[in-house]
Amino acid sequence: MYFNVQEAGMGKETGMYISKRALRKHFDPREYPKETYLLCELRWRGGVRSWQHWVRNDDDNYHAEQYFLEEIFEPRSYNICDMTWYLSYSPCWKCCQVIEGFLEEQRNVNIDIRVARLYYVNNPRNCMALRELKSFQGVKITAMEDEDYDYCWDTFIQPDVNYDFSPKKFKSEIQRNRVKLEDIFQGLHL
To answer: Is 65 a catalytic residue?
Structure first.
């Protein structure tokens, strides 16, 4: 498991970024890499700073979502935390259960999950788990849109990197994922 943390706020940034190649390879919905990347921005309400984190799983035993929640996130019971996750794959059914368990314990956390591609949506367990997770208070799940890709590029890649990456090249896959995800939420998929 690999992870990185960087702090952003008041013009100060420290830490490392993910590589431009990793963003292109792992968030292009036309590609199907083995690893999952989780890019996270979180903000404690009332705070001045936002925190950016990224996690990549490198095996099937410890998924990125579980690792982030169990090893990276530091709860603060006295304030509300708003997290936005940019995931290269939607959570599997096991990760959906881990997220639900986490949210039952951390009722002050909201998670906005944006996915680049859908993980094995022909598996009914994955579809049901996504529907159940979406119904949880404080959870939002959507397919990534153009502006999400641009935001990830601007936030999680080293500034001033010249590299051609445009979500316009896979606009049809973005639309397909959005429609498929909505069908899953409405119980129409499978």
So the answer is: yes
